[in-house]
Amino acid sequence: HPDLQGKVLPGYDFVNRDNLPADDNGFGTFEAGIAAAMTNNEQGIAGTSWGAQILPVKVLGSDAWGTYADVISGIVWAVDHDADVICMAFGGTEYSLGMQAAVDYAISRGVTVVASVGDENANGNPVIYPAGLSGVLGVTAIDQNDVRLPTAGYGTSTDLVDLTAPGGSIISTW
């Protein structure tokens, strides 16, 4: 995307096991734009951090599914490649000791780990991992009136949510 030119570092694709972490459905590009889209270029949008760079780590396939093993590998790879923040806008309902160990490794290296608490409110609002892991900052979505979106999760208790962020009618890179 033009608003991400010069912002994307070399990454890794744990799904296809190569150095080409292509975004199959646009969601990663959308999230990257919110964080790091160029500013003052008279096009597109302005990201929240003009100095940020994106280290793309692909752990989900084109169907938006993946394995915890790939997520764990992705976390460790990002830490070992000098990530400052790891942001994961996906999750599953099963706790993973291995994923907790990867998050602990990231935190021990000074990396901030952020994850979505999910959008499963209509499905019983389960705890979503990695957001439910110790040390992870859990994020849920709010609207323009600071009200949690009807689908936005919050786990089985509000203790899972550390941050709220706009989640409706957002414009970003695609």
pLDDT below 50 for ≥5 consecutive residues: which ranges?
A: none
What is the overall silhouette? globular
How many distinct beta strands?
A: 6
Order of helices and strands: EHEHEHEEE
Helix fraction by DSSP (H/I, runs of at least 4): 10-25%
DSSP summary: helix tally: 3
How far apart lie the N and C ends?
Answer: 7 Å
| Helical/strand content category | alpha/beta
Radius of gyration: 16 Å
Describe, in plain words, how this protein is organized in 3D.
It is built from 3 helices and 6 strands, in the order βαβαβαβββ. The chain is α/β, with parallel strands linked by helices. The chain has a 4-stranded parallel beta sheet with strand order 3-4-5-6. Strands 1-2 form a two-stranded parallel sheet. Helix 3 links the parallel strand 3 and strand 4. Helix 2 packs parallel to helix 3.
